Structures are given as C-alpha cells and as structure tokens.
Amino acid sequence: MATSENRADRLMSLMEMLRDGQLHRAEDLAVALGVSLRTVYRDMKTLMGSGVAIEGARGTGYRAQAALTLPPLNLTEAELEALHIGLAVVGTGMEGELREAAESLSAKIDAMLPEEVGGVTQGFGFASYPFDVSARALRHLEPLRTAIRGKQKLHVRTSESARDVRPLKLSHWGRVWVLAVWDETGNGFAELRVDQITEITPLPGLFVEEPGKSLRDFEAQS
Questions:
Q1: Is the overall model pTM greater than 0.70, yes or no?
Q2: CATH number of the domain at 7-64, out of 3.40.30.10, 3.30.1950.10, 3.30.450.20, 1.10.10.10?
Q3: Over the stretch 11-40, which tens digit does the pLDDT of each residue have?
Q4: 202 contact partners, CB below 8 Å, separation of at least 6
C-alpha cells in the first residue's frame, strides 16, 4: 500500500478494506495504510459521521454494514457545482426523508473531497440561510458563468450600489454564492454576494487580463 495517499484516497481505501464484511482492527488498518493509529481513528469518525454504514469502535475493530456502494467517480468542477445546486434545492425545498437524504449525501461528499481549500472543494455542506436566498442566487449563476468564460464586462446592480465590473470567479460557502470581480467603478477588487444582485447587464466590449486586475492577482491578494 502507498504510504502517501491524500485524504480522499485514504478514505476510499478504508472503505474498500471494510467492504469484505470482516472485522478489522484499527492497528492493522494503520499498518496497511502507512499512517498513525490516531489518523485511522479520525478517518473512521469522519466516515461514520458522514453516513457511511460502519459499525465498531476503538479497541473492538470496524466492519462495513451492508449498504449500496458506487464505484469511484471523477467529477469536473462544473459537475460538482451542478451536484451542489441540486442538493441545495432538494435540501431546502423538501422536508422529511428527502431533506435528510440530501444532507447525508452532502456530508458524504464533504468527507471525500480533497483537503485543499478554495474553489468548489470548500464548504460543500449546507448553511443556515433560507431557501429564498439560494433561489435568488441560482438564477444569476449561468449568466455569470457565461460572462466569466467570455471575459464580458458587466454592469451589476444591488439594492445598495451599481458598478461596472470584470467578473473573475464564482465560489460558494454552503449556500452563499460569491462573485469575485475587479470593480472598475471603485478601482479595486471586490466580492459580491450573488443573492444580493438585482440586475445584471452585459456591457459592450470584452476585457483582457491586465497586471493587477486578474484572478491570479485577486487570489494572491486574498
């Protein structure tokens, strides 16, 4: 076994080991994965807390209960974003079993995502904002994504301001979507909550990357 697996690979390896239905001591799992016993305990807590059907405890060993499993999937950022939107809609627009299933699935995805921060890999789980906030943001996502890809300048209006911007990046924190921009009106970088945007108007002409105004500059500043 490789001893330098990242967290997502390690959790997947743990699930594969436990799928045989046999009881596995934490010490044996640690040796097989080339990690510390403490890391195994932490990983098992993560898997169990995210809804993976595992029974056992420290000192007794662990085994997987019978449950539906899927083969590993490689998702693009766009696919992960689509999955996040769908879960947000179900998790906030439904009650009972479907809402619980959406929350459980969200937690499982969180547990399997890489540990690096930023972009869609951060904060996948549900936040405490009401659904109408999410719905207001969802209608703006596609035109904003199109503008980012096409480097289209936008006039963005909120209830408090109006500004001409260069859209750079969309990211989310739970259900709160944020648009990073170069604000030409204010002559600086800014982050706008998408649910607070009331109007988006494309402006004539496209923008090109300029030193000090690019996504790379924004991320370096952040």
A1: no
A2: 1.10.10.10
A3: 878 887 887 778 889 999 999 988 999 999
A4: 147, 152, 153, 154, 155
